[in-house]
Sequence to fold (214 residues):
Amino acid sequence: METSEKKSSKEQLARLSAAALKNKTGRGWKEWIQWLDDLGADKKTPREVQAALAEHVDNVWYRQKIALGYREARGLRGVGELESGYEIGVTRTFPIHSSKAWEVLTSEEGLAAWVGDLENGTIGPAESFTTKEGITGTITVLQPGSHFRIAWQPLHWRQSSILQVRVIGSKSKNAGKSVISFHHEKLPGAGDRSAMKQRWEEKLSHLAEIIKGK
Fold:
């Protein structure tokens, strides 16, 4: 009996089986990959591929899956690429209790370090802001002592992304350590993923300097 490890990669792509795909769209992965090869999809962007599929697949979710699965099959899918875009996560451990880490993160100096200097607006539950750098944001979730969830959008992006900033305490109450985490989802492209990875690593370094000076 053939094991799942030995199955062709075309049996399941983008976390969707060929049988399920054929049941919903009339074609399995093998047929769709051939169709897209004939279309020259390897030279097209995911959005262009999805647009080409629109006449043949009514459901947007399946169009996204086919486009993503094709990129996966042809080795075009990048690191951190998901159906909803790209994502990145960076963390750093600090030698302070989580309550102190949250205090630093939400202090005037700390907010300036990772949010930036505000042009207008405020940082608070359900509040919106614009930074002098041209970033707009809306705080959709603010759980004191735990995390922020922000709709985050630079000037040159067509739509907002999701930024989550968390403080995670050590499992041992006596350890006196905590983690600050930046998780950024729905990034437009691979280049944006690289840029955001560098950005949040730099912000963590800046926060480390603030904590060191306390």
